[in-house]
């Protein structure tokens, strides 16, 4: 049977990349009738410092974004990762299955740890192992994410295959399919066409937050980095114009058009004509979601109900799987 699983970290304000690369995809899959398990990744969030006073609010905010973007708790299971103990338990077993050499190749750790590898948390290093546990606990068949998670999803498949093989339980964990081909699988920073848009980017100008108002969005797009040229002609290679390519991709994803159609519409025009149109589009796509998030955050009772119910439904699937794993590994069982 089909089972979709994905998560978003409770590590700060959501942005346009999260919306186009993740949230918009989740609702599409739900609306196709696929059972979806969507969690708020608070265990992942603390791999970098999170103020405890803010973490709870950030967790509710991600839940609000799920609901506001069209996920229906009657159809989809929405829950906080830390509320289902099985995630941490399975992650430990997987820490003993995954090899150091596999983790040494992970580019996200290299990017996030930067020049200060020795000062990073151990959790940041083993993050992809926890991610494998998140996915395999539910025996997920499909995992929609942005393109940045592709390498971690391959690692998940390697961990599943090694567990199945080491313990002689072929097919115990099915190998999940990564779905990284969304409308905009890699939205780039507005300030740097070689870096992805991220919650953790210190520059707020680099991203459009779901909570930005129309003026802020218009300002960030107006000031976004471009180049001295004009909008490209149809068929023009954009390899050396990454910022321009990014803005076109965003426009295409927001308007459900192909990049070629967008290029044809604006070919040869100045950015002064294109940018306000892009800003209008971003505002009209995001404003209803933002408004609904604000409504949900005003009284958190509804969100808390959804998260509690989701945690129970998720644990009902995950707990028996981790119990089976304990038996397979040979842990003493009463
Ligand atoms: P952080 O900087 O804390 O890692 P993030 O912006 O990368 O935050 P995550 O919570 O790590 O957000 O990712 C949530 C989902 O959003 C994942 O599926 C991820 O692949 C997707 N995503 C994140 N950034 C982008 C982006 N720039 N373009 C498309 N998808 C993205
Ligand atoms: Mg990330």
From TrEMBL:
* Gene Ontology MF term list: ATP binding; tryptophan-tRNA ligase activity
As annotated in the record, motif 'HIGH' region runs over: 10-18
Q: Which SUPFAM superfamilies match?
A: Nucleotidylyl transferase (SSF52374)
- Pfam families to which the protein is assigned, alphabetical: tRNA-synt_1b (PF00579)
Motif 'KMSKS' region, residue range(s) on this chain: 196-200
Positions binding L-tryptophan in this chain are: 134
GO CC aspect terms: cytosol
Major location category of this protein: cytoplasm
Q: Which residues bind ATP?
A: 9-11, 17-18, 146-148, 187, 196-200
- What's the superkingdom here? Bacteria
Record's InterPro entries? aa-tRNA-synth_Ic, Rossmann-like_a/b/a_fold, Trp-tRNA-ligase, Trp-tRNA-ligase_bac-type, Trp-tRNA_synthetase
- Where is this gene product found? Cytoplasm
Per UniProt, the keywords (alphabetical) are: Aminoacyl-tRNA synthetase, ATP-binding, Cytoplasm, Ligase, Nucleotide-binding, Protein biosynthesis
Q: Which GO terms describe its biological process?
A: tryptophanyl-tRNA aminoacylation
Question: Does the keyword section mention Acetylation?
Answer: no
Complex formation: Homodimer.
User: What does this gene product do?
Assistant: Catalyzes the attachment of tryptophan to tRNA(Trp).
Q: Which family does it belong to?
A: Belongs to the class-I aminoacyl-tRNA synthetase family.
Q: What is this protein called?
A: Tryptophan--tRNA ligase
- The source organism is Brevundimonas goettingensis
Its taxonomic path starts at: Bacteria, Pseudomonadati, Pseudomonadota, Alphaproteobacteria, Caulobacterales
Q: Which gene encodes it?
A: trpS
């Amino acid at each position: 049977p089909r089972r979709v699983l994905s998560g978003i970290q409770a590590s700060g304000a959501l942005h346009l990349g999260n919306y186009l690369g993740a949230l918009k995809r989740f609702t599409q899959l739900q609306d196709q009738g696929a059972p979806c398990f969507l969690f708020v990744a608070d265990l992942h969030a603390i791999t970098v410092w999170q103020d405890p006073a803010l973490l709870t609010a950030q967790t509710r905010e991600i839940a609000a974004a799920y609901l506001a973007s069209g996920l229906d708790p009657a159809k989809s299971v929405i829950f906080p990762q830390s509320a289902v103990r099985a995630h941490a338990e399975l992650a430990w077993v997987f820490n003993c299955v995954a090899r150091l050499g596999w983790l040494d190749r992970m580019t996200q750790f290299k990017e996030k740890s930067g020049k200060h590898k020795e000062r990073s948390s151990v959790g940041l290093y083993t993050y992809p192992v926890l991610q494998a546990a998140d996915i395999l606990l539910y025996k997920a068949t499909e995992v929609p994410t942005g393109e940045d998670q592709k390498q971690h999803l391959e690692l998940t498949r390697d961990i599943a295959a090694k567990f199945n093989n080491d313990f002689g339980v072929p097919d115990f964990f099915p190998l999940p399919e990564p779905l990284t081909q969304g409308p905009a699988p890699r939205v780039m920073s507005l300030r740097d066409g070689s870096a992805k848009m991220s919650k953790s980017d210190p520059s707020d100008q680099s991203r459009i937050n779901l909570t930005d108002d129309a003026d802020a969005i218009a300002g960030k797009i107006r000031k976004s980095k471009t180049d001295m040229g004009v909008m490209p002609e149809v068929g023009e290679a954009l390899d050396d114009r990454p910022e321009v390519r990014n803005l076109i991709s965003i426009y295409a994803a927001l308007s459900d058009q192909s990049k070629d159609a967008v290029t044809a519409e604006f070919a040869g025009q100045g950015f002064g004509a294109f940018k306000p149109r892009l800003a209008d589009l971003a505002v009209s796509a995001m404003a209803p979601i933002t408004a609904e998030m604000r409504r949900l955050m005003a009284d958190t009772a509804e969100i808390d109900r959804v998260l509690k119910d989701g945690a129970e439904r998720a644990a009902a699937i995950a707990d028996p799987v981790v119990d089976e794993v304990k038996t397979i590994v040979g842990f003493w069982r009463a």
